[in-house]
Amino acid sequence: MTLMLKPGTEWTTLYQRCREIAPEAFAAERVYNHWGGRWRADGEPRLAVSPVDGTEIAGPPMVGADTAEAAVRAAADQHRAWRVTPLEERRARVRATVEAWTEHRDTLALALVWEIGKPWRLARQDVDRAVSGVEWYLEQIEDMMEGRAPLEGPVSNIASWNYPMSVLTHAMCVQALAGNAAIAKTPTDGGLVCLTLAVALAAREGLPFTLVSGGGRDLSPVLVRSPEIGCVSFIGGRDTGGQVATDLADLGKPHILEQEGLNCWGVWEYSDWDTFAGQVRKTFDYAKQRCTAYPRFVVQRSLFDRFLGAYLPAVASVRFGHPLAVASAEDDLPELDFGPLINAAKAKDLTAQVSEAIAGGAVPLYRGSPDDALLLPGQNTDAYVAPVSLLEPPRSSPLFHAEPFGPADSIVLVDTEAELMAAMNASNGALVSTISTDDPDLGARLAAEVRAFKVGINKPRSRGDRDEMFGGWGASWRGAFVGGKLLVHAVSRGPVGERPPGNFPDYTLVPREHS
User: Fold this and answer.
1) Boundaries of each Aldehyde dehydrogenase domain copy (predicted)?
2) Which residues 6+ apart lie within 8 Å of 286 measured at CB?
């Protein structure tokens, strides 16, 4: 069967649609930055290609530290005006923004497909979660802000590329509801056009948003250490997050630093393999390129044969490929678990790690083939990696101790509960974990020993929406916890001497209702 790109989804068609929706933000040959209340043709556009098929797409207009400093000062000016804007007006402007996002939902989603390779279902889901999440805060914000005030300066957002809408722009709207201006650095790996369109629609409604592109080495010191910044919100890896934490150490600024951890799924005294098989396939959504993915299974050795009987068919059923490939023009876009990785460099790096792990003694239990992918004839496939599963990667391998951020599972066998706990706590803190066991009491006891912020019993965990708290232990999180009222409290001032719930150098605090 020969496949084709679904008509109407071409990159050029998408970009022209963005230009028609927000001509102030998109020129024919480049995308603009937004600061000081207007769109600016500053910065040098960087070459960018889509991970989907290597098509050249709009690249981020990279500015330097001087421009970033000017943008921060302008955002501080906006913040001083916005923080005294009545709450009802803030709510009206945010509500108008999410209504605009809803109107242009499919354009935002198609940008996510081309820029970061999300399958259509997951791309639309990302936009929908941003809209529904902000709508929930619109109804709750008055109670959440009672007795509280906006920060002294704008919130600086430095986020990873994988959830531009449901995490980054969602947070920016909540920050604005709380009375703050919001600054965002465009992730250099992807999401520029989606973020620019979302910010353009918000700026039209008067939200005090700043969006600038630039390298982390140039912009991060400005977006973290500038005295005008009221709070720093970071989502990314431990190396970069550690540098941000170092930069913040002597400043005393409110901060939210979400970092990676090796999220583990433990299997102990378990028999419901039909349920487990369905759960395994879902762990491959978006090629495990999310902070709450499960790339490590820790399995009781005596159950390994039954584990494989459920696991291997589930992995073999995973569908991946070009998110916009169809057999005929009338067909719906394909239902895929994942498309490409974020870029060819990441695909090459992950493939090398797998090969090195096998050379070091890991046993390849499953290796998919690019031939199984849904692809266009002759298309570029540099960013595609098929699912792979390795038994017992060597301790010298990054796949043993770090999150691969790709469709690569590792499986570790254990014989005792103590070994189970040691293997599940290999990364000094994680965001989520799961224990599959037939005994709920045993599951609860084991879960209490896992160093993950959320632990599921016979079910996966995620960030959660609305009033569900989210954070991390150990090196996976620094600063205030978020979710529900905690997200609002993290970006607002409460009573003098308030100790926000979170994971800080001198204390860790969990609200009583969540402990």
Assistant:
1) 48-485
2) 118, 119, 122, 162, 337, 338
Using an 8 Å Cβ cutoff, are 337 and 118 in contact?
A: no
Q: Is 10 exposed, middle or buried (0-12, 13-18, 19+ CB in 10 A)?
A: middle
pLDDT in tens, 474-492: 889 999 999 999 999 999 9
**Residue that has been written with the tokens 């109407």 in this structure:** 8
Place of tokens 């965001």: 431
- In this structure, how many other beta carbons lie within 10 angstroms of the beta carbon of residue 274? 8
Do residues 189 and 343 make contact, with C-beta atoms less than 8 angstroms apart? yes
- For 361, left (φ over 0), alpha (ψ -120 to 50), or beta? left
Bridge partners of 61?
A: 45
pTM for this model (two decimals) = 0.96
Tens digits of residue pLDDT in 377-389: 999 999 999 999 9
**How far is residue 508 from each of residues 257, 263, 451, 505, measured CA to CA in Å?**
14, 20, 13, 8
* Backbone torsions φ then ψ of 464, nearest 5 degrees: 90, 160
Dist. CA 437–CA 352, nearest whole Å: 34
Burial of 351 (0-12, 13-18, 19+ CB in 10 A): middle
Q: Is 223 helix (H, G, I), strand (E, B) or coil?
A: helix
Give counts: helices (H), strands (E), the chain: 16, 25
